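Please, structure for the following, as C-alpha cells.
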Amino acid sequence: MKQHLLPAIKLTLVCLVFFCGVYTLLILGIAQAAPNKGEGQTVSVNQKVVGYALEGQSFTADKYFNGRPSAAGYNAAASSGSNKGPSNPEYLKTVSDRIDTFLVHNPGITKEQIPSDLVTASGSGLDPDISLQGAMVQAARIAQARHVAKEKIISLIQSNTERSVLNGIEKINVLKINIQLDHLNDIK
C-alpha cells in the first residue's frame, strides 16, 4: 500500500500546483496579450459602453436591423443553443412564429426570401452578426421607418460588410450597423 500511496500524494500535489498555478497563469498571460486584455471588445458611443462587439443583442424596433434570435435570451451567462432538432414540433413552432413576426414587420417580403439566420438561433445563442442577405432583406423596412432612401441603407450595409476569415462568408455586425443608423444623418 505504501508503494501506491506516496506516488498518489505526489501526483496530487503536482496536479494542484500545475492546474491551480501554472495553467492559470498561462491562461492569464494569453488573455493579457489579447485585444482589450481579455475583457471583451466593448463598443462605445460618446464614451459610454453600449455593448460588446462579439455578443448579440436584441433589436426589435423597425428602425433597426434585427439580429439572430437567441436561445439564451441574449444572456452571456446562459450561452447555449436550444438543442432541439429540425423535427422537434416545439422548435418548428418557434421558427414558424419567428417567420410570421418577420413577415408582419417586413411587408413585401415572402417567406422564401427570409434567410435562415434571421429565424434560427446560433449554437451559442449570442451570434452578433447576420448574413449580407439578412441585412439586405431588412433594408426596405428600415428605410421606410427612418424616412430615408433605400439606397442609403444599402450603401450603409455595403460599407459595414465584413468577410469572415475562416470561410469567406460576408457578414454584418448588428450592433455596429445599428449605431451607425442612429448617426445616419451625419453621414454624407
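The mean pLDDT is 89. The first strand starts at residue 42 and ends at 45.
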